[in-house]
Specification:
single chain; 67 residues; alpha+beta; 4-stranded antiparallel β-sheet; 2 helices; 4 strands; 28% helix; 43% strand
Length: 67
């Protein structure tokens, strides 16, 4: 999975998702060269859900069905 900036350049390429105890670990590269490992903790995940609303959830589900 790749994340892009508004100008179309690659910001991060996520190569693996792994579980480490109660955390989700994302492994990949940032800016095409720098290896990065990020941890998503349960409290941060709950905080992320508070950013969602019904309209955004519907959009995210529709993204799965697009080409």
């Amino acid at each position: 999975m790749k994340l892009f900036s508004p100008d179309g350049s690659e910001l991060m390429k996520i190569e693996a998702l792994e579980r480490d105890g109660d955390m989700l670990v994302l492994k990949g590269t940032a800016f095409g060269a720098m290896p990065i490992t990020a941890q998503l903790r349960p409290q941060e995940m709950r905080g992320g859900f508070s950013l969602l609303n019904l309209k955004l959830v519907c959009f995210l589900v529709s993204m799965l069905l697009r080409r």
